[in-house]
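Morning!

This is the sequence you dropped in the shared folder:
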Amino acid sequence: MSQPYTEKVMDHFKNPRNVGKLENANAKATEGSPACGDMVSVYLKINDQTKRIDDVTFESYGCASNIATGSIITELAKGKTIEEAKNITWKQAADELGGLPPLKAHCSVLAVEGLRAAIENYEETHGLVKERKATTVEEVRRRLKKVMNPLVGLDLVKTELITGIMVEKGKVTVSVDLPETNQFANTIRQEVIEKIEPLWDVNEVEVRFAG
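The structure's back. Tokens below.
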């Protein structure tokens, strides 16, 4: 039976480049979840003057395609400006690896989404967002889909832990169907704030737990 992966994919899978948490990162993002089988976190160190990516690392949980794509994406992004890095595509990454199985497209594209989300995180926290739309409940809910429910490894929205979202005069209130005493409550609170606080018109984020 033929090997489904190219030699280059196996090389980046077995010897991934730029792995681990980047301690001096000024942008980061996570896409996917372990419960779905694949997850990628991308960390960036962007030069505030040149807007060039001086360093980039990733952490990955998943299949060979996921890990290899995360590895090659970091290689492609390093040294590029954030505008150049935004244009990196899954096809470009796949071509660099000598091709990827079509069935692995979904898990492999997570690295590209993670890179773009990390750049978006940098732009938001550094006031670089050009088109400023008022924050809506829908936008808050979209961001909460990237906050994991540690109890099951799926996001808060999918596991129906979010019982309410209110956006009013610069304040976002998120209600979570979990006791304040739950061991994961503080972690969830911090991650919710981390995802919502960068929005340009949000001044305060409150996370309310049940009971």
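Headline: The longest strand covers residues 38-46.

More detail when I'm at my desk.
O.
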